[in-house]
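Today's session is about reading a structure prediction critically. Students often jump straight to the picture, but the first step is always the sequence itself: look for stretches that repeat, for charged clusters, for runs of hydrophobic residues. Only then move on to the predicted structure, which in these notes is written as discrete structure tokens rather than atom positions. Here is the chain we will use throughout the hour.
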Amino acid sequence: MSIKSHAFGRVTLTGQDAKKFKNQVTYGKAKPRAKTTVKRGALLVKKLSKTGTLTLTSTSTGRLIAKST
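Below is the predicted structure for this chain, in token form.
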């Protein structure tokens, strides 16, 4: 029952942690804010594919705003 991280971002879950993760993926419900974020991301990917450029702007609170140009 552990979480092991590897070079290049690979993570291995074992034991109880793996069981919890599998159940969350299988039975968990997405929150409305997560659904909205996925929709915005999909739109950005389409625009990026079409135009080939993307602009990231940081706000004073540290939030990133992405715009396709």
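Discussion point for the tutorial: The helical segments are 15-27, 32-51.
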